[in-house]
Amino acid sequence: MAAAPRRQRLPTLLEVLQGKSGAPVDYQSFYDYLQLSWNEDAVAFWTEAQRHEKLCVQYITQHGPAQAPSLHTHFHELINNAEMVYKRYLLSGDHEVLFPHDVRIKMPAQFMPTSTELLHMFEVPKNYIYTRLETDIYPVFLQDHAFHNLTSFRLYLRLFVGLILLWAGLSLGYTFIFLATSRVLRLWVVLPFALAMYMLVSYTYGVDPVLACLGLFESKLFQVRAIQEPIIKGMHRRHATVCAALMVAGTAAFSVLFVLVPGHRL
């Protein structure tokens, strides 16, 4: 895919579906996201219907709008393509897309439409799919991919590890206090607290500062890709700056507390 255009906004759903956006909000990322909610057939139908309409427009531009079924070879290819889309996505099967009753279309056994009828054949269900994607699914996709650079699994893993490290830091700190350990030795609490803050703050904001500074994001578990949308790269780096400041502040607060508190041997 070509480099994403330098826009000053997030891409629209139409730009994503037409392949005019870059990672992490490109068509492939959106399709992978839909697979998690079993909606990939819906966007596949929209793509096939859009392609069918483009083929019809090309035919009408070259041959004119046929008022009666044409015997032209390309016209029969359009009919075959329409039948393929209909049978794959609108009939019962592995890839069936469910529509409300008033949106569903029926294809008669002897299907011989005009070129204009072929052009508008999937218009209603295609618009229904687009509206559903735009209102229900795309905003959540943007929230997950445009504002975060970690997968959901990685986020919850960081929460779990961060809480364990925080508990380890607190345990170590109290142990040093109640053993009246020297303040120099107590500086070891900085390590677990720093790692805990790194994990917990990145979980809270959904941004890994290191990946953000490198212009990368985690597309799948243990798989990173380069960010192609400049506006998203800038957002991630601004979030990374905030995260880094909070990590330093949190680490300093816990460390100073457990280093400077007077020791008391039990």
Topology, please?
Blueprint (H helix, E strand, L loop, with lengths): L12 H5 L9 H10 L3 H24 L9 H17 L25 H5 L3 H24 L5 H27 L4 H4 L3 H16 L3 H6 L1 E5 L2 E4 L3 H31 L6
Structural features, described:
- α7 (152-178) runs antiparallel to α9 (190-205).
- The protein has two domains: 13-142, Regulator of G-protein Signalling 4, domain 2, CATH 1.10.167; 152-260.
- The chain is built from eleven helices and two strands, in the order ααααααααααββα.
- A hairpin with a 2-residue loop joins β1 and β2.
- It has helices spanning 13-17, 27-36, 40-63, 73-89, 115-119, 123-146, 152-178, 183-186, 190-205, 209-214, 230-260, and strands at 216-220, 223-226.
- The model has no long low-confidence stretch (mean pLDDT 88).
- The chain is mainly alpha-helical and 266 residues long.
- A two-stranded antiparallel sheet has the order 1-2.
- 64% of the residues lie in helices and 3% in strands.
- It is elongated.
- Residues 30-151 form the RGS domain.
- It comes from Malassezia sympodialis (strain ATCC 42132) (Atopic eczema-associated yeast).
- Keywords: Membrane, Transmembrane, Transmembrane helix.
- This is Similar to S.cerevisiae protein RAX1 (Protein involved in bud site selection during bipolar budding).
- The chain crosses the membrane at residues 155-181, 187-217, 238-261.
